[in-house]
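Dear colleague,

Thank you for sharing your sequence with our group. We've completed the structure prediction you requested, and as agreed, I am returning the results in plain text so they can be pasted directly into your records. Please verify that the sequence below matches your submission; if there's any discrepancy, let me know and we will rerun it promptly.
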Amino acid sequence: MQFSLALDETTVTLPANSKEQIFAEKLKSLLKLGTRSNRLKDIFDLYYLLNNVNVEILRHFIDLIVLTDPDTREKDFAAISNRIHRIFSSGVFLRRLSSRKSNWLNISPRTATSRILAFINTL
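Please find the predicted structure tokens below.
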């Protein structure tokens, strides 16, 4: 990504992660921390991103960032789905998602979590 500086002819290049890489990294964090996660905004970020990613590229990044990481317990997409289902089934976790500060999309936590899980099940 390049940004032009208004003062002169100079441009600055800022590297940016792809939406697919961001999704995979947020997913990895959720899998690692589970219901203990304090990164509740990430759930709504995932919901937003799932409508804006290339699925094939996303599968590549999940494989690279999540599945091949020796510290990750989940070694296939079915295991990821099962773990996400368990996290999203926690009443305590869902209540924590109701915080206005985390929910920048202003949608129901159940809507976000059910859509994310349905999406992950298609991978």
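Summary note from our side: The chain has one domain: 18-122.

Kind regards,
the structure core
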